[in-house]
Specification:
Bound molecules: inosinic acid, magnesium ion
Strand content: 25-35%
Number of strands: 9
Largest sheet: 6 strands, mixed
Shape: globular
Structural class: alpha/beta
Oligomer: single chain
Length: 180
Amino acid sequence: MLKHTSDTIEVYLTEEQIATRIHEIAADITARFQGEEVTLVGILKGSVFFLTDLAKRIDLPLEIEFMSVSSYGAMTKSSGVVNIKMDLGSDISGKNVIIVEDIIDTGNTLQRLLELFRSRNPKTLTLCTLLDKPDRRTVKGIQVDYTGFVVPDKFVVGYGLDYNQKYRDLPYIGFVQMEE
Ligand code: IMP
Ligand code: MG
């Protein structure tokens, strides 16, 4: 089932594969935080599809928050500041915070986000990403607690991930082959 696109998309992870893996991650999170409440924090916009499916499968009292941050170009990467376009709607101190990301690429965004979140004194801070592209990592020492799939160094779209804001709506994840 391919939705209409002008570029060619090669399916890499089907809806079923994604759903199965999310069930497994949700079960792991449910087991790890038994008797506790968790706060899922989605980093907009890419994590939205993943976060909503994950939240439905986690069997714990749960809150949802979102944060929107702007990504920097190479010139500003050393500034060490995250530009928050939209901050969380509530205080996370004392909470079991689970950051939900679409993909970890270089790790730059996440390194700064982790510093920011730690400074707000959550009870626990857990990192959950649907996709990880370890070959592209430039920031060392980021500990990822839950990873959906490790992907090769190719540009992926769908299930929340975009190419110039397009293809987030695809129910599967694929490699985009740009039209020449
Ligand atoms: P980084 O880890 O700071 O390099 O940035 C990660 C962000 O870049 C992700 O949250 C995505 O928004 C975006 N990104 C990286 N690789 C891809 C990809 O293959 N497809 C779509 N977005 C990507
Ligand atoms: Mg992102």
